[in-house]
Amino acid sequence: MDVMEKYLKAIEENVCSICVDSNENGKCTLTDKEVCAVQYFLPEIVSVIHSSNPDDLQECYQRLKEIVCVNCRAQTDSGYCYLREDSNCSLDRYFMLIIETIQKVDAGKI
Ligand code: SF4
Ligand code: SF4
What we know:
Elements: H1 3-14, H2 37-40, H3 42-50, H4 57-69, H5 82-85, H6 90-93, H7 95-106
The structure holds iron/sulfur cluster (2 copies).
């Protein structure tokens, strides 16, 4: 299993399993037309977490959104995102859990 697969598996087990958009088996129910930034941008998310100060989560969050949102197809050219407006972006909803999960993989705990 390559390293990104390891992160993806850990995200599925720890984040998708409790996500409001997953079914009772922890499987994502989104269609191809819908957007999950966590899934689409996992390499970027891992990279930002690795290059951020672990004591400054606010900065990590800001950098993450700067890098991900501009490339995310949910956001329009004017910067509007319907998921953000509805507090329904998975990256926002599970930000802390995503960080914890990546850090646990890095520490060899999962
Ligand atoms: S929306 Fe994202 S975080 Fe939620 S189950 Fe689907 S892939 Fe996982
Ligand atoms: S807030 Fe919107 S544009 Fe930014 S990552 Fe989430 S879904 Fe994508």
